[in-house]
Each structure stands twice: as C-alpha cells, then as structure tokens.
Amino acid sequence: DQQVKQNSPSLSVQEGRISILNCDYTNSMFDYFLWYKKYPAEGPTFLISISSIKDKNEDGRFTVFLNKSAKHLSLHIVPSQPGDSAVYFCAASLGGSEKLVFGKGTKLTVNP
Amino acid sequence: NAGVTQTPKFQVLKTGQSMTLQCAQDMNHEYMSWYRQDPGMGLRLIHYSVGAGITDQGEVPNGYNVSRSTTEDFPLRLLSAAPSQTSVYFCASSTQGRQPQHFGDGTRLSIL
C-alpha cells in the first residue's frame, strides 16, 4: 500500500525550460512534505520542504506547490539546467511522527 | 565536517553470514535512521532512533537489528544475511525526524 506516489518514473526536458515533478499521497494526515535530489552513487540531498499550512514554498529556481484537497504536490524547477539531472524523491511525514515515507522517485534528465 | 559517514561502501556476503553496517555523524544530531533503496522501490525506512538509547522500527525492520549507545553512532546489524537483503543502504541524521535529513553516501550490499 503505497502512501506516497510518484507516478512518472522519468521526465526529460530541454535546458532552460520548466521541469514539473509530481507527487500524490493517500493519507490526509500527512502534514509535512519534502523533496530530495539524488545523484548516482551519492546519498539523497535535501532540496525544499513545505508544511501543510502553506500552499507554496519557493527557494531560488525551485518551487513546491501543495494542493491539500487533491492530495497532490509538485516541484517546479525554472529554468532547468543539465546539473539538475538526477532522481527526485518526494517524502511525507505524519503529524506527531518522526518517520518519513518516500515515493519511488522520478528520474529527471535535462538535455543541453 | 564529515557529516554522515557510512562504512563499508561495498560488501559481498554469503547467505547466512552476519555483518554490521557502520554509520557515524558529527553534527550532534539526535535523530538517526536507516533506509534501504531497491530498484523501483524508492527509500524504505528500516529502523530509526530519536536519541541515545532509544530505537524503533520502521517500515521494513525484519532481519535487522540496531542499537544507539552514543549520539554519534547508529550501527545496523544483519543477523543472518539473505539474498532479499541485497540493496543499497543509507544512513541519515537530523536534529529531529521531521527536519531535513542529511544522508550518507550509502553501502552497496550484495548477498549471494
């Protein structure tokens, strides 16, 4: 029973364009969401997070949008750069829990 | 700062052998966790600890043991290795579970 779903295993975009990575969740009690980026042979690195009291959080080229009614969040990268090519994981946490639940990841390829 | 250090980076075991994956962090983080990453499965939580002397199970704890005698170290023990435990293992730490976690670079474990 997958609680955090990233339904697109891969995404390919052109350099300079927008990359949109999507994540859906099933548990309405999740109240904190994070995005991690992972390069091959390295550990994941934290990218951006959002609390359920917000619907948008921005950090430079990265923006996360949260739609609680649809149980959906998305990560926008503008403009996309070749160095953004990596696997992106969405993760969620229940209120009061110390645990994170991860999605399966989406591999982003940014073509020069 | 070394961050989160995992040793070894690679290991091959035979079925039935036992071994300990080491994890150390130098950031004085209270929260530490172990994940496994399998192809197409994302990251799954094995065990976690909210402080020295306190551990709890994650999503996939069977076949693994942990202990937390110091703030810095959080070893993961495979009691009797099975081929199903072939995976990449990541250790992570943070000030608390709901804060962004710092990951090590992983241990790639193969069990024959």
Protein described:
The complex is a heterodimer of chains A (112) and B (112). Chain A is mainly beta and 112 residues long. Chain A has no helices and eleven strands. In chain A, the strands form two sheets. In chain A, strands 2, 4, 5, 9, 10 and 11 form a six-stranded mixed sheet that branches. A five-stranded antiparallel sheet of chain A has the order 1-3-8-7-6, with no helix packed on it. With 112 residues, chain B is an all-beta fold. Helices cover 0% and strands 52% of the residues of chain B. Chain B contains no helices and eleven strands. In chain B, the strands form two sheets. In chain B, strands 2, 4, 5, 6, 9, 10 and 11 form a seven-stranded mixed sheet that branches. In chain B, strands 1-3-8-7 form a four-stranded antiparallel sheet, with no helix packed on it. Chain B is globular and about 35 Å long. The termini of chain B are far apart. The model of chain B has no long low-confidence stretch (mean pLDDT 94). Chains A and B meet through strand 4, strand 5, strand 9 and strand 10 of A and strand 4, strand 5 and strand 10 of B.
